[in-house]
Amino acid sequence: MTSPVLEIQNVSRSFGPVQVLHNIDFALHAGQVHALIGENGAGKSTTMKILAGYLQPSAGQVLLDGMPVHFASSQVAEDAGVIMIHQEFNLAQQLSVAENIFLGREIKRGLLLDHTAMHDQSKALLERLNCPVDPRAKISEISVPNRQMVEIAKALGRKARVLIMDEPTAVLTSRETDILLEQIDRLREQGTAILYTSHKLDEIAHIADYVTVLRDGHQVFADIADGLSEDQMAETMVGRELSNLFPPLQTPQDETVLSVDNLSVDGWVENVSFTLKKGEVLGIAGLVGSGRTEMMEGVVGLRAATGRVAINNNPLKSNSVLAARQAGMVYLTEDRKEKGLLLQKNLRENLTLLALDKLSGVFINRLGEEQALDNAIAEFDIRAGDREMNAGNLSGGNQQKLLLAKTMLAEPDIVIIDEPTRGIDIGTKQQIYEFINQLAASGKSVIVISSEMSEVIGLSNRVIVMASGRVAGELTGKDINEGTIVRLAMGMTQNKATAA
Amino acid sequence: MTDITTSAPQAQKRKLNFHLLGPLFALIALIILGACLNSNFLSYGNVTNVLARSAFIGIIAVGMTFVITSGGIDLSVGSMAAFIAGVMILSMNSLIPIMGVGVPVIIMGMLIAAISGFAAGWLNGFLIAKVRIEAFIVTLGTMGIYRSLVTWLADGGTLSLSFDLRGIYRPVYYDGIFGISWPIIVFAAVAIIGEITMRHTRFGRHCSAIGANQQVAVYSAIKVNRVRIATYALLGVLVGLATIMYVPRLGSASGSTGVLWELEAIAAVIIGGTALKGGTGRVWGTVIGVLILSLIDNILNLASIVSPYLNGTIQGVIVILAVVLQREKKTAD
């Protein structure tokens, strides 16, 4: 084995009185992909930030090429070739790809910028990554995976020897993920050391040479990835067996609570009709861009839509989220950071925002709010260090739980959940699945939109597959399987898809 | 990450406290400074005078706090005040032949002021929320429109309230109860109601939610357009109220009435710790901001160390300082 490029030795880190990392110890080697996995809050981000110079260790040290180094800032780390790619990209939307790649270290000829040289070098870097993006295109014009590629190209342009990737595939579709994994393979062959985090264990099994597992700030596992199954990884992360990720399905009642007839959303959805029964979990599958989210936003009044939506046979006023809420139907957005939570506001104000009228007469009932927060923390197992903390400082999983609690405070009968577990760890996922199941058991009706096939299959009594803004098919019982869903989503007809 | 943040809020709280109370400390420092410089500073006459003069800007600034908290801005309030004053004076004068000289005419005038304030503010809000034009552009436009309308109404000169009515109306500015003049009482009432509305009602909470992230507000079933229009209409009504208190002071209005009031009101809001980009609003902070601005003016007039002509310079420095302090808080997080 080659000698390590970047090493972390016995590193601990505390924030105030709370120790979040305990003696973490591992090494990154050139030409290897090292996966760092763990539940939300296990200490992955802190570890990565220490490696990339964003945070300093409280104890222990970081070694570069075997020599102790002190990365006083991320800038120092970058100069040494250690570059972290964040989940939220650091790209200037209105600048071109080439301008972004050379941002802060522009090539000049005399006093003026040398656009030709920057263009050519960008092109060369992108070609190395097999990325067909035009260096002159604006970032805002290119796709999300291509932006990821630009980030990587930018890192390579800075002579990255170590790439630290914080959940690069969280926002990618499975096809885009495959492309990214291919590029990572290529980088590995070229001798880059890569630290990779993801909640998607199949990716880890596919790409990693070496796996380190963190749990509650402790390193609980570190070994080569060969022979390590996804189940073993999950159990190591959670520290308990996860045999039944999905609870057994409930049986829906006969009563129809929601009926949607000929719903159209301009440019997205055409003439969609479906019904939802009391106590039913209805899954909505389909490719990203098939109109799943837009359809549901049309149903709850967040988007202008035509057609008829009726709850318990009473037609719903169109284009009014408030009317939908008052009729007992709520929608939980897939975008919790931009549409779900006020990140700079505390937990209480976030929790009660949707159902504030239930907690106030002329004045807001502050005690009632505190009580509601107590209940939410207990019921949804929200792990917040401080009741007064801002929602933005919660981990992804806890943000999702807070969003769930916020939605449930409105006491809905119909809950539409868009991507219930995006970017959250497996332990929290299981809690959320359990919760959805309990909702159905208590006679509420749930619609789950998800890009994770296993989620739709494991949770739903019935599945509607969308393709290009239409219902491509409706599946029940044994027909709910990955093959059929994929065939329908790709545009095959229902007869062919189920027969195949 | 859960564990990281357990410690962060404590540090944040300490900093926040300083940040929160900064304007209050500045106000206390100013009062001490004023008292040291001139023995008359704390006299009943001077204090009453300063407070009564603050009342106009103060009443408007309370309304401005709601507009800014929900992510808006209103540059038209100074012109709006002049326009309302003009409309009010013209209508009261023309009502004399019908209603005679007396209190009913004054009450009609007050009603007209409140209604035109509401209408002017609502128009701003409607254009911003429904027609979706930038608040800065809309109110920059109406600022010019209202100012030019009052100049046109006055035919380039001054609109004066009929002499007989002035006598009846005068006490609204100059009298009071228990030695406190009416403008001060009205300002205090507006401030207290404003503070309670901001902190303890759904309207206040919705304003700050919209200012923090409009998308989240939409997804949380808040009627964003309605709330937004309401903030501008409320501000308009308060401009009307400020005008009601202002007209009896001089008994006239012209194209130069209320010049730069919008900037003073916005400055007071910012000094008070309300974020210009919206999301957090503090009515009590705004009140302190108003007092700071008028005390500086007063101290410069009383003490002859610095020329009163430098008033604007000092106020400008303080506004910029207040924003720098706000930003330091953010990067420290």
UniProtKB/TrEMBL annotation, chain A:
Residues 6-241, 252-493 form the ABC transporter domain. PROSITE patterns: ABC_TRANSPORTER_1, ABC_TRANSPORTER_2. Keywords: ATP-binding, Cell membrane, Membrane, Nucleotide-binding, Repeat, Sugar transport, Translocase, Transport. GO terms for cellular component: plasma membrane. InterPro entries: AAA+_ATPase, ABC_carbohydrate_import_ATPase, ABC_transporter-like_ATP-bd, ABC_transporter-like_CS, P-loop_NTPase. It holds the Pfam family ABC_tran. One of its GO terms (molecular function) is ATP hydrolysis activity. It is a peripheral membrane protein. The keyword Cell division does not apply. Its main location: membrane. The keyword DNA damage does not apply. It is found in: Cell membrane. PANTHER family: CARBOHYDRATE TRANSPORT ATP-BINDING PROTEIN MG119-RELATED, GALACTOFURANOSE TRANSPORTER ATP-BINDING PROTEIN YTFR. This is ABC transporter ATP-binding protein.
UniProtKB/TrEMBL annotation, chain B:
It comes from the Bacteria. Its main location: membrane. The chain crosses the membrane at residues 20-44, 50-68, 75-96, 102-123, 135-153, 173-193, 229-247, 259-276, 283-300, 306-325. InterPro entries: ABC_transp_permease. The keyword Cell membrane applies. It is found in: Cell membrane. CDD domains: TM_PBP1_transp_AraH_like. Keywords: Cell membrane, Membrane, Transmembrane, Transmembrane helix. The keyword Cell membrane applies. It is a multi-pass membrane protein. One of its GO terms (cellular component) is plasma membrane. GO terms for molecular function: transmembrane transporter activity. This is ABC transporter permease.
